[in-house]
Amino acid sequence: MKELVIGFALLVAGCLLLFQLVDDSVLSGIFSLSSTQVTKADRLSVIYINNNCTKHNVTTNELPYHDLHMKWMAEEVTKENYAKANISLEAAYEYVDQIAIQITSQNLFGEKVYCHYFDSNKKKIGEPFESNVFPESVIYCLRRAGTNYVSLTKKPNDTPEYPIPLLDRTMEKPEHYFSVCIAPFFGTEPKWLMIAEFVEWYKLQGATYFYFYLAEMSLYDRIILDDYVRTGEAEVVIMHDRFDRPGDRWHMLEIHDCILRSRAHSKWAAFVDIDERLTMTQYKGTILDYLKNIGDKSIGSIQYRQRWIMKTEDQPEKYINATETVKWMTTQRYTNTSHVGPPGHTAKCIVRPETIGAMFIHYPRKFNPGFNQYGLTPEEGVVRHYRDQRFDNWGKTWIKEVAAFGPFEDTKLEENVSKQLVETVVKRVKYVYGKAQNGYK
Ligand SMILES: *[C@@H]1O[C@H](CO)[C@@H](O)[C@H](O)[C@H]1NC(C)=O
Ligand SMILES: *[C@@H]1O[C@H](CO)[C@@H](O)[C@H](O)[C@H]1NC(C)=O
Ligand SMILES: *[C@@H]1O[C@H](CO)[C@@H](O)[C@H](O)[C@H]1NC(C)=O
Ligand SMILES: *[C@@H]1O[C@H](CO)[C@@H](O)[C@H](O)[C@H]1NC(C)=O
Ligand SMILES: *[C@@H]1O[C@H](CO)[C@@H](O)[C@H](O)[C@H]1NC(C)=O
Ligand SMILES: *[C@@H]1O[C@H](CO)[C@@H](O)[C@H](O)[C@H]1NC(C)=O
Description:
Blueprint: E1 5-12, E2 15-21, H1 24-30, E3 36-41, E4 44-49, H2 66-74, E5 89-95, E6 99-103, E7 112-118, E8 129-132, E9 138-141, E10 149-153, E11 164-169, E12 176-182, H3 192-204, E13 209-214, H4 219-230, E14 234-238, H5 251-262, E15 266-272, E16 276-280, H6 287-292, E17 299-311, H7 322-328, H8 330-333, E18 336-337, E19 348-351, E20 356-359, E21 364-367, E22 372-375, E23 381-388, H9 398-403, E24 409-410, H10 415-433
Parallel strand pairs: 5-11, 12-13, 12-15, 13-14, 17-22, 17-23
Antiparallel strand pairs: 1-2, 2-4, 3-4, 5-6, 6-9, 7-8, 7-10, 10-11, 15-19, 16-23, 17-19, 18-24, 20-21
Helix pairs in contact: 3-4, 3-10
This protein binds 2-acetamido-2-deoxy-beta-D-glucopyranose (6 copies).
The site of one 2-acetamido-2-deoxy-beta-D-glucopyranose (NAG) has 4 residues, from helix 7.
């Protein structure tokens, strides 16, 4: 039995270089050796897979759904028009059929912009390509062979913004089945425990990846986020550009970006806030079980109705011990629960990113042709939303609307799930924040 150890892979000039400790006979079973050049130095083989770099060396000549996008643009779908800002590039994605660039400006809806292409040495490739901003902070561009970096300008001859690298989204199969997109963090309430409780909850529900967005956060809170990055369970996107804005104004940018980021990377992606826990109710199984059992391929989104659980205090500032951790976990501390909101009311969903034409916080504004949404019944699942009463004056204003849905009652998580959650949260926060007693002496 031959052993194959994949050391690491590097993307150089858009071509795949694999560094492996291998035996040639193993290789031939995996790659077509006729198109593979192998050089050997001791047991370290550097394999250059000369597939013409087809993966990253493709030119396309039409944008998918272009006419539909122009129609939606004319209807002003997703137009919010916040503030005044110039183009700022956040991220760029290369898919099989196109490139998408996410910007953090929200005042350029529908405007003409130009995509610029660069190779790995940041040398310009060809003439700029004319496109439009749609949805509100997204620009689709054709793929162009040899491109590693892209940029944008308002006029074709303007100096492009600093080019940014293309993130690879040309995978044939998504790496994750169920991931979670989380609204950007801002504000001063401590979040370390909320983050652990959130991540561990969704992991118990079968999620394997988390896309976090960060506008503002304490260094202490940041440590747990980075720890989830360390273990390959999360990435953190920094929301920053040179134009100031209130913390909540990053939200729609996250929504648009996470559709792009999760597309081809995750089969399903939930769009939620840190205080929202999508929960199956009478359905026996996890969220992942539910997703895997969706037979109807036209379903591009499943939507959960809301129940608000009254959170009345700030979260603790720092880790103390296990007892204090459990005491302050929102799922353990708060039980006063509103009646379920009506269908659609501030609902949250899990979507298949590639079916979405234009996304919103609570539902997809547009699906690509052939897809639609299924609304979960409250018997299948709801959002358990641990809503702070004081933030945004919620407990004085919104509460009236929520109280009108019906009576409040005490509800808890199902006992077994609750127990598992407590266990995993206590373990992780102790691991990350608990100081060992035997450091330098
Ligand atoms: C990329 O493709 C073009 C033709 O489409 C070809 O001329 C060029 O050699 C390719 N580059 C690499 C690095 O494979
Ligand atoms: C790329 O590979 C294909 C198939 O192996 C071959 O026919 C073609 O000539 C190659 N093109 C380049 C530019 O190397
Ligand atoms: C924004 O763009 C305008 C017009 O091109 C320019 O005058 C201004 O300096 C830019 N501001 C920043 C902060 O880039
Ligand atoms: C945990 O911390 C609290 C608050 O400091 C303290 O009262 C309690 O005794 C501690 N419990 C344990 C088991 O150390
Ligand atoms: C639950 O919350 C509602 C709304 O704030 C409040 O009116 C009610 O008294 C609370 N119930 C309990 C048992 O605390
Ligand atoms: C909870 O766990 C116990 C013991 O493992 C098991 O017997 C019981 O069926 C579980 N309950 C549910 C609702 O899963």
